[in-house]
Each structure stands twice: as structure tokens, then as C-alpha cells.
């Protein structure tokens, strides 16, 4: 029988035996999300900053979408890519936070197997899309700063749509096999997921067959997408910095550096937390579970929270449009 900190959970009973009957069991009807091991007594308090970040993320990203849609002067490559990133952030945060808060505040640990697989698909595919849109925005900044006269002809609306579709198809295509593969596995060990959400590696470890090939596929895809995007983003910003330092005006150089610096900070937070989670699954067997899970939550929560602030508040055109709208409403 499975125990969680010495407390038996009824969902886990009957799943730890390894007889022939269990080998034929295709999948459990529900899984049991543990939350953050060792910090169960702090779940209520941990949920407060998580909920606050989620509210800011939703309000900020919805505001960006509304402002860009309403103001035709913002229908430029940078703001179109920003809208794509905002939609990705909304899906990514909404696929995890509400369910996580139910766990933290209402003790709702059970999650249906199909719902678990759906959550897993949204998390991994939209994380890949987030990475892709960061790369698209870096390319846009590179063209805008290094070749400004050809910016409009290089990044046309049709080319932007093609880039957005390619990023979306890549995320869906590479991560659609995840739920399909897990759906076929037998689960006869336990139904307890030591995590706050249905993450692929946390679920695949529960299978009672050899999943080496499945794990290698997931790790290869995640590493391949992340490392390629990260390399080209870094290359773009190196070329941008090279061009910025050659600008004749010191004021223009500082303005470009300030804009790029804030963008780089968001990207570093995303890739550092995602990279830590990836490497912990592969090599970090001695990392404390609560540290691993908290960081895994950060790379899903912090970028959607920071993106509207960095890309919205610090972008003059968006900031001015929001302020003018608020002033008009204040007069009414």
C-alpha cells in the first residue's frame, strides 16, 4: 500500500500489487496530485502569491490583446508577436493555476486521467510555443535595429502569420505524442503524482513497464527545441548589442539597451527555470523535491506574470494607449 507522509490515500489502494491482473490494466481512472512534498502545511499560504501572479498575468495579457486589437497603429510585427505571446501565456497559466489553487485551498487532489493528459499536453506544447515566440520577437528586434529600412518588407503580415503558424505547429506536433504514449501505458504501481500538476516525467515514472524510449523521446524533444531556440535568441541579441554600440547617438544606444535588457531578463528567467527543471529530471536525483517542484512552477507562472509588465508597461506605445483610455474613462 502507498503512503504519503504516513497517511494512506484510498485512491492508491490496490495499485501497488504486481500480479498479472495489474499488468493488463491500461490506465487508472484518476491520479492523485500530492502538491509540494514536505510543504503541505504551507499550501494555503503558497497559493496566495501564486493566485496574485495569475490575476496580474490574466489582466495584463488581456489588456495587451485589447489595446493592440483596438489601436491600428500597433498592428506592427513586434506587437503582433507580443499578442501571440500573450495568448500563449493565458493558455499556459490557465491550464495550471486554477487546478493548482483547488489543490492548495480546497484539498482537491484527485484529477481524472484524461484531464491529466490534457493538462500535460497544454503545458508542454505551449511551453514550446512560448520559447518559439521569444525567438520570433528576438528576430523582430534584430531586423528592426540592424536593418531598419527593410523591416517592413522582411516581416510582412503574411510572413508573421507563417512564423506564428510554424511555432504553433511545432509545439503541437512534437508534444501530441506525449498523451498518446502515456494513454497506452499500464499503471500498476501507484496513482500518486508527487507534483502540483501533471508533468510528463512525473507521470511516466508511475508506469509499470520499461519507459526508457518514451523518456528519451521527451527529453530529446525538449532539449532540442529549448537549446536551438536559446542559441538563436542569444545570437540575435549578440548581433543587436554589436549594432547598438555602433549607434552614433548615446541616447539611442541607452534606449535600445534598456529595451533589450528587459527582454533578456524575461528570457533568462524562462530558460533558467525550465533548464533547471529539465536537468533535474535527468541528473538532479539529489535535489530536494520541494525545490524541484517550486522551480517547475516558477517557469510556468513567472513569465506570464512578467511579460505584460516588461513588454507592455515598458513599451511606450502600449503604455500611452492604456493611459489615454483610462483618462477617457475617468472623464466619463
Automatic annotation (TrEMBL):
Matches recorded under InterPro entries: GPCR_Rhodpsn, GPCR_Rhodpsn_7TM, Olfact_rcpt, OR51/52/56-like
Superkingdom of the organism of origin: Eukaryota
Compositional bias annotation for Polar residues: 14-24
Listed PROSITE patterns: G_PROTEIN_RECEP_F1_2
Listed transmembrane segments: 42-67, 79-97, 117-139, 160-177, 221-244, 256-279, 291-313
Residue stretches making up the G-protein coupled receptors family 1 profile domain: 60-311
Keyword presence, Chloroplast: no
Membrane topology: Multi-pass membrane protein
SUPFAM superfamilies referenced in this protein's UniProt entry, alphabetically: Family A G protein-coupled receptor-like
Location of the region described as Disordered in the Swiss-Prot/TrEMBL record: 1-24
Keywords, comma-separated and alphabetical: G-protein coupled receptor, Membrane, Olfaction, Receptor, Sensory transduction, Transducer, Transmembrane, Transmembrane helix
Entry annotated with the keyword Transmembrane helix: yes
Subcellular location: Membrane
Main location: membrane
PANTHER family xref list: OLFACTORY RECEPTOR 56B1-RELATED, OLFACTORY RECEPTOR 601
Protein name: Olfactory receptor 52M1-like
Organism from which the protein derives: Microtus ochrogaster
Gene of this entry: LOC101992550
Amino acid at each position: 500500500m502507498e503512503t504519503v507522509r504516513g497517511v494512506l490515500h484510498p485512491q492508491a489502494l490496490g495499485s501497488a500489487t504486481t500480479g498479472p491482473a495489474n499488468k493488463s490494466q491500461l490506465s487508472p481512472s484518476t491520479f492523485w496530485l500530492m502538491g509540494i512534498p514536505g510543504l503541505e502545511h504551507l499550501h494555503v499560504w503558497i497559493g496566495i502569491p501564486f493566485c496574485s501572479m495569475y490575476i496580474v498575468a490574466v489582466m495584463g495579457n488581456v489588456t495587451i490583446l485589447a489595446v493592440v486589437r483596438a489601436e491600428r497603429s500597433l498592428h506592427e510585427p513586434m506587437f503582433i508577436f507580443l499578442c501571440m505571446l500573450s495568448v500563449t501565456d493565458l493558455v499556459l497559466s490557465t491550464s495550471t493555476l486554477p487546478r493548482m489553487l483547488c489543490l492548495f485551498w480546497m484539498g482537491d487532489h484527485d484529477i481524472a486521467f484524461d484531464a491529466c493528459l490534457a493538462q500535460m499536453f497544454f503545458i508542454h506544447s505551449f511551453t514550446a510555443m512560448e520559447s518559439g515566440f521569444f525567438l520570433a520577437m528576438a528576430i523582430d528586434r534584430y531586423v528592426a535595429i540592424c536593418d531598419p529600412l527593410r523591416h517592413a518588407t522582411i516581416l510582412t503580415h503574411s510572413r508573421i502569420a507563417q512564423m506564428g503558424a510554424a511555432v504553433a505547429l511545432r509545439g503541437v506536433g512534437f508534444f501530441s505524442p506525449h498523451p498518446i504514449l502515456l494513454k497506452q501505458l499500464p499503471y500498476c504501481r501507484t496513482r500518486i503524482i508527487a507534483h502540483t500538476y501533471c508533468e510528463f516525467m512525473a507521470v511516466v515514472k508511475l508506469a509499470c513497464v520499461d519507459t526508457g524510449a518514451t523518456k528519451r523521446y521527451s527529453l530529446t524533444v525538449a532539449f532540442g527545441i529549448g537549446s536551438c531556440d536559446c542559441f538563436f535568441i542569444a545570437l540575435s541579441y549578440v548581433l543587436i548589442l554589436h549594432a547598438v554600440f555602433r549607434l552614433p547617438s548615446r541616447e539611442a544606444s541607452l534606449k535600445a539597451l534598456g529595451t533589450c535588457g528587459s527582454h533578456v531578463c524575461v528570457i533568462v528567467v524562462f530558460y533558467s527555470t525550465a533548464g533547471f527543471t529539465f536537468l533535474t529530471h535527468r541528473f538532479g536525483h539529489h535535489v530536494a523535491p520541494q525545490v524541484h517542484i517550486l522551480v517547475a512552477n516558477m517557469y510556468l507562472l513567472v513569465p506570464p506574470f512578467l511579460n505584460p509588465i516588461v513588454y507592455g508597461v515598458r513599451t511606450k506605445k502600449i503604455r500611452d494607449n492604456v493611459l489615454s483610455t483610462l483618462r477617457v474613462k475617468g472623464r466619463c
